Amino acid sequence: MQRRSFLTTSAIGATAGVIATPAFAQINPEVKWRLASSFPKSLDTIFGAAEAFTKRVAQLTGGRFQIRQFAAGDIVPGLQVMDAVQAGTVEMGHTPSYYYFGKDPTFAFDCAVPFGLTSRQQTAWFDQGGGRDLMRDFFKGYGIINFMAGNTGTQMGGWYRKEIKSLADVKGMKIRIAGFAGRVMERMGAVPQQIPAGDVYAALEKGTIDAAEWVGPYDDEKLGLAKVAPHYYTPGWWEAGPQLSFYINIKEWEKLPAQYKAAVETASYECHVTMQAAYDTRNPSALARLIKNGAKLHTFSRAIMDEAYKISTAVMEEEAARNAKFKKVYEPWKRFRQDQNMWASVSEQTMQNYLISIGRK
Amino acid sequence: MQRRSFLTTSAIGATAGVIATPAFAQINPEVKWRLASSFPKSLDTIFGAAEAFTKRVAQLTGGRFQIRQFAAGDIVPGLQVMDAVQAGTVEMGHTPSYYYFGKDPTFAFDCAVPFGLTSRQQTAWFDQGGGRDLMRDFFKGYGIINFMAGNTGTQMGGWYRKEIKSLADVKGMKIRIAGFAGRVMERMGAVPQQIPAGDVYAALEKGTIDAAEWVGPYDDEKLGLAKVAPHYYTPGWWEAGPQLSFYINIKEWEKLPAQYKAAVETASYECHVTMQAAYDTRNPSALARLIKNGAKLHTFSRAIMDEAYKISTAVMEEEAARNAKFKKVYEPWKRFRQDQNMWASVSEQTMQNYLISIGRK
């Protein structure tokens, strides 16, 4: 409707020969973008939140700014979304920045690092604690501007064929895990493996791998791993609050009228809220079903957590010593984390722990 | 600029005598609203987030939808924002729904009830767990449509002249507290008092009251209560995650074009995120300063928490028994809370507790 009225108005402008209508056209141009997602449609919480984002942007621009989302593999593989946005193959992407850890570990601060921020802390850091400026400064080097676009909350620690009772059980364990966590796991004695999600079930069944990490109950349930690797561990210490991001090619971003930029900025906040809310709403019943169907819930032992933390810290300090970009983010981030955990311990956590204790009664 | 181009286009339309431009005018009318806040400008985190909301809505509508925010008392007192929106005195308000507990305790589910949801759980419930539908059905009876618009996170339990070591210390204690918490406190033997924020310091200094609750470190610091009531308790068990809301008069809402409705909906998500992120970012340093300046931090004892929980549950069950509207929300809400705390105990909390433990080292 909006489009049709614009076209008619435009025709009038041409007839009357005045500049007013072209000015309107300039402010509200028709724009069509492609968004490459790092995820398949089956991860419907993530994919669905981005889909709602594209619909909202269209609504906010009277249907004139259309963004079409493509699933991982449709245009580029899920792990190459950053490259596609950088190259301008697509204008936009939806991806977790730690996928690009191999290019520069600094990417991970935009998503999650081992023993990093919870989702609420990550949001505070990015939105109000200086994180956005630090990360955008880094992303500029890739010709990309980044936006918060969802969080899963603390992920689970994955599925294991056998119980992991002590550090000795970690030695030699073949686990499907990548990036920062893979580097830490390797130093703990495990053998990180790269296997596409679709092949995980078979690899666990055959014993080609001993363990695999994925997301959390709602997404994990679809893979059916409880049958072949029933020991379900918590917490995913490498993903306390992994943030999803929208990437936009900076040149394309700069072409947008101010109103369209505002639409993208605002709608990405909505995506950020709805994705986590959807995970939080769906995870409890999924976990209950998993347990009913044979998943055995365990918590990593204190000794394993302590060793993972010690190694994670060492890996991060080493990276900071040799990588100035990493260090520039890491130092203020570390202070922010310290402050946030102090504050959480005083208020939120005291309350949450009490609520959990009464829920157990 | 947008406005000027519209006016010129409009003039052309009139000259040409076609219907296209009036259709555009109908889609993008100039709208001016007033927003009554329940808060003074000095609560800059809350007030500022709503201000950013009004700016965003203007941006998203090319400056054609202007909302002007007024502080508490400018048009109506802070506690009468609901009435003003209902009556159409203002089109919109920004307020915590538990202020209207006296009209119907059901309002409190839109904000906070004792031992209720944390901010993340409240967001999940409202946005994806059925809360929005339940609350909007209730608000219809007041001619209002409500939106999430911020959260403070778990608040502090307030300032006390003397230590509260046991339930005996609660008996006869005059505390500035209202609504649901006031009703629970009263049954615990305390004497709830209603005192404007500006008079709290003097009342505590003179001993007219023994205690007062406000918000959290960042806002509390401005009142300077540590000097007259140094014992600072946690957690504010009556406010695990109080949500702020935007209220809009339904008749005014229905007059808006779809694009303006979308602008309000989306921008309220942004406000929801930025307010909490700002509190989270500002609270840690404020707490550190408070402690440096004499505040003595305490945690309510398990016996006090248990008694407060027992009475809170009794009060809610009684309300559900006599108030069908309350019961309609309470029953599904109770199940949601149970599920959320189970899930939090498995994943998020396990991680957060570990992060706190390493932060303390």
Automatic annotation (TrEMBL), chains A, B:
The keyword DNA repair does not apply. Keywords: Signal. Residues 1-25 form the signal peptide. CDD domains: PBP2_TRAP_alpha-ketoacid (cd13682). InterPro entries: DctP_fam, SBP_TakP-like, TakP/all3028, TAT_signal, TAT_signal_bac_arc, TRAP_DctP_sf. Pfam families: DctP (PF03480). This is Twin-arginine translocation signal domain-containing protein. It comes from Massilia mucilaginosa.
